[in-house]
Description:
globular, Nucleotidyltransferase, domain 5, 5-stranded mixed sheet
Amino acid sequence: xxxxxxxxxxxxxxxxxxxxxxxxxxxxxxxxxxxxxxxxxxxxxxxxxxxxxxxxxxxxxxxxxxxxxxxxxxxxxxxxxxxxxxxxxxxxxxxxxxxxxxxxxxxxxxxxxxxxxxxxxxxxxxxxxxxxxxxxxxxxxxxxxxxxxxxxxxxxxxxxxxxxxxxxxxxxxxxxxxxxxxxxxxxxxxxxxxxxxxxxxxxxxxxxxxxxxxxxxxxxxxxxxxxxxxxxxxxxxxxxxxxxxxxxxx
Length: 250
């Protein structure tokens, strides 16, 4: 691959999944130089806020391990200099790691990234080169072409076969339906089936829009707009439940 400047592959471990409220606890990064040589960084960060038990369960990093580690503000300047002039790459990094890193730099007054920085998300490449339609997924798992796709029963049988193959080829996957849903949902819990809201530590947050990752209970005007707009009735019912209001009000 032609590589005119270094590419830094990086990954963050954090206190949670909120870009605005959570903090970084570990930065792992490998800078691949144009000549193929590598520079590696792997540092623990004191997030200055408690690490929830759920997050520790995921990445194994506890409050005790980071209490004496540097804060992000203490390494930000040197880290930004190390990143400067490089492109960035990761797995699902466009959706989380990049915006999380930008937010952390913003808190300490450092403009990031440099103008002209390119971003490579390996997950997006995977989705491009390996299609994820039912037929494509069926062929990838079974080696067979799906005949009669879009007939309801044929699609259902194909889905069942894919599901069984997923369990067969991935023995660490849970087999219980509730555990599978939790596995796919990650740390947060879906509140409505449309996926507009999620629950974390007993609080309900927006999953979309200008108030994404903000508490539903603290965005009354936005709630009113959603309740008066073309959104699923079940989503609206969950919002009313959070606000403790009757249907007649909105």
